[in-house]
Amino acid sequence: MSGIKLSIVIPNFNEKQNLDRGVLEEVNNYLKKVKYDYEVIISDDGSTDGSREEAEKFSRSHLGFKVLPNPHGGKAKAVWAGIKAAKGEIVLFTDMDQSTPLKEVEKLFPWFDQGYSVVFGSRGKARANFPWFRQLTSWGFRVIRGIFLLHDVVDTQCGFKAFKNSVAKKIFPMLSVLKEQKESKGWTVSAFDVELLFLAEKFGNKLKEVDVTWKDEDVATNKDKRFIKESTDMLKQILQVKMNNLKGMYDQK
Ligand SMILES: Nc1nc2c(ncn2[C@@H]2O[C@H](COP(=O)(O)OP(=O)(O)O)[C@@H](O)[C@H]2O)c(=O)[nH]1
Ligand SMILES: [Mg+2]
After folding, report:
1. What pTM does this model have?
2. Could you tell me the distance, in angstroms and rounded to a whole number, from the CA of residue 236 to the centre of ligand 2?
3. 88 lines ligand 1 (CB under 6 A)
4. Rounded to an integer, what distance in angstroms lies between the CA atom of residue 204 and that of residue 226?
5. Is 145 helix (H, G, I), strand (E, B) or coil?
6. Strands 160-164 and 118-122
7. How many CB atoms lie within 10 A of CB 173?
8. How many CB atoms lie within 10 A of CB 149?
9. Is residue 251 domain-resident?
10. Closest ligand to 13 CA?
11. In the chain, N or C terminus with fewer CB closer than 10 Å?
12. Domain total for the chain?
């Protein structure tokens, strides 16, 4: 055993603007106060804006922080690279913009003692700083997803999810996006969160959704997010997960 209680995996793709705003200092200021051992793994996703170098510089002067360089492959691949390296009992992945501040992990911890092995943040229904068109697409996404999969989950997409280490290491490799060989370009989100929770539940893990604070703190202006296209892509992937399951693709031999 490493003695590390919490591994925090932060995927990083061209997050210079958030780094300049001091997100890593924020994370470190919180962690300085905790009484357990931790590690912060910044899993770089082929950044080209100098953010990897900036995170490396920060890591050299802050104990417990390290950067893992990876070729660009999208968020799921970057998170998985971080999880593979994680030594903590519990592994949390969270977004660089810290829209959910790391402190919220305190709300997740108690559930692990109650036999849950996947405990994830939920942004609730009304989200601060969330423009109306995102409210609308996320509502539509939730309604349709709930018809097909994960009926009891309100928010599958919150970027703040914690797992027992062994569970994360078992479930992640089953994700369809991680089996794709093709190179990713630009910003790619996917419904990997949906598949992740679906698989975790399918393989007998107890899932707990916990309300966390979420306020859009993202200052990045380089994220060209086409919400309509992303939402339709996500819907396709929800149907894909449903189909994969019906075809027995996730069943272990
Ligand atoms: N969207 C996106 N995020 C990535 C990618 N690779 C790594 N990431 C990281 O994954 C997290 C996504 O968070 P964010 O952009 O705030 O997503 P959102 O708030 O859900 O729209 C950030 O820490 C990104 O730096 C990628 O290819 N696309
Ligand atoms: Mg964000």
Report:
1. 0.93
2. 22
3. no
4. 35
5. helix
6. antiparallel
7. 13
8. 20
9. no
10. 1
11. C
12. 1
Rounded to 5°, the CA angle 204-207-212 comes to: 165
State which of 14, 95, 155 you would mutate to test the pocket of ligand 1, scoring each by most atoms of that ligand within 8 A of its C-beta.
Answer: 95
Q: Is residue 63 part of a domain?
A: yes
Nearest-CA residue for atom 4 of ligand 1? 75
71 CB neighbour count, 10 Å cutoff: 12
Question: Which helix (H) or strand (E) element contains residue 122?
Answer: strand 118-122
How far apart CA 81 and CA 83 sit, in angstroms, is 6
The two three-digit tokens of residue 92, written as one number = 């949390």
Q: Is residue 54 part of a domain?
A: yes
Among 156, 169, 151, smallest CA distance to 89 is for 169
- Alpha carbon 132 to its chain centroid, in Å, reads 23
Domain that holds residue 111: 6-246
Q: Which residues contact 54 (CB under 8 A, 6 or more apart)?
A: 16, 19, 20
CB 241 within 8 A of CB 198: yes
Q: Is there an atom of ligand 1 within 6 Å of 52 CB?
A: no
CATH of residue 10: 3.90.550.10
pLDDT tens for the 253 residues of the chain, in order: 689 999 999 999 999 999 999 999 999 999 999 999 999 999 999 999 999 999 999 999 999 999 999 999 999 999 999 999 999 999 999 999 999 999 999 999 999 999 999 999 998 765 666 778 778 877 887 888 889 999 888 888 899 999 999 999 999 999 988 887 665 555 555 669 999 999 999 999 999 999 999 888 889 888 866 667 767 777 788 888 999 999 999 997 6
The 3-state DSSP class for residue 74 equals coil
